[in-house]
Design brief:
The protein has 271 residues and is α+β, with helices and mostly antiparallel strands. 33% of the residues lie in helices and 25% in strands. The longest helix is centred in the C-terminal third of the chain and has 27 residues, at 224-250. The N and C termini lie close together (8 Å).
């Protein structure tokens, strides 16, 4: 097995809140959530949270004992919460949190776990591409943003509606019927999207944070088969360069084009 990876901060004046790491049999990708005002709740910050949680996950996966991925995640969330529970307000909805993607090769299969909106691309033998994600946050965000429809941005009415939408979305976080993300409650791990596929059905996999997956949606620069081709030609850094070039050209005309931290890892299965 051979893994290559690249990551790039969305802004030069802020730390990269993504995390990516690998052990011989597994890979972990986290996309940290930077919530405005979180600095006064947690002195450590979101990037500290993703690195602490990511390190704990890699430690659990390195044992290569086939333990359930959700159990590994639950223990890592609990350990990370304990590391700053006495100094920070970790129960506040705005305190540091992160999406989680784990993929592990074990006993001839690739096991995977997704919590919130990172992306796992399966490069299938025979030429097909299959993409997996946890869509619950996207669905919740769309539903909570409905009051903004038809309201002119930049107006007081828009600002009030947007604040209400943000409050409504936070109320759905880590709640039944809402969406789940790694934060302070280990029970979120058991709500993750999980699955398994035979290794002999795969040429490899790629994992992408939300900032990198923009190359497909919403930017529409290529489809997922095109991402596979770009990875083969230019590696993970080539995907990120394509995203950044488009963002620089458009120059932040809308919220969707404000650069986000972007991370890609490509995991090739070598006979």
């Amino acid at each position: 097995m051979h893994v290559t990876m690249a990551t790039d901060a969305g802004r030069a004046d802020r730390p990269n809140e993504d995390f990516v790491g690998a052990v011989p049999n597994a890979i972990v990708l986290l996309d940290g959530a930077g919530i405005p005002g979180a600095e006064r709740l947690c002195a450590h910050g979101v990037s500290w949270y993703t690195r602490r949680l990511g390190g704990a996950l890699l430690g659990g996966l390195a044992r290569a004992d086939g333990r359930d991925l959700a159990a590994i995640l639950a223990d890592a969330i609990a350990a990370t919460a304990s590391a700053h529970r006495t100094t920070c307000d970790i129960t506040d909805p705005r305190s540091p949190q992160a999406t989680v993607l784990m993929a592990r090769a074990h006993r001839g299969r690739l096991d995977h776990l997704l919590l919130a909106d990172s992306y796992l691309m399966l490069d299938q033998v025979g030429g097909g591409v299959r993409v997996l994600t946890d869509e619950r946050e996207v669905v919740a965000r769309r539903e909570c943003s409905a009051p903004l429809a038809g309201v002119a941005p930049g107006t007081e009415e828009y600002d009030r509606a947007r604040a209400l939408c943000a409050t409504a979305l936070r109320a759905r976080r880590n709640q039944p019927g809402g969406y789940w993300i790694a934060k302070d409650d280990p029970r979120a791990a058991w709500e993750a999207v999980t699955g398994s596929v035979a290794l002999d059905e795969l040429n490899g996999i790629a994992v992408l944070s939300n900032g990198a997956s923009r190359i497909v949606s919403p930017y529409g620069l290529t489809g997922w088969p095109g991402v596979r081709e770009l990875l083969a030609a230019d590696g993970p850094s080539g995907v990120i360069r394509r995203v950044r070039a488009f963002e620089a050209e458009v120059c932040g005309g809308t919220d969707a084009l404000v650069p986000d931290d972007a991370t890609v890892a490509h995991y090739r299965l070598i006979p």
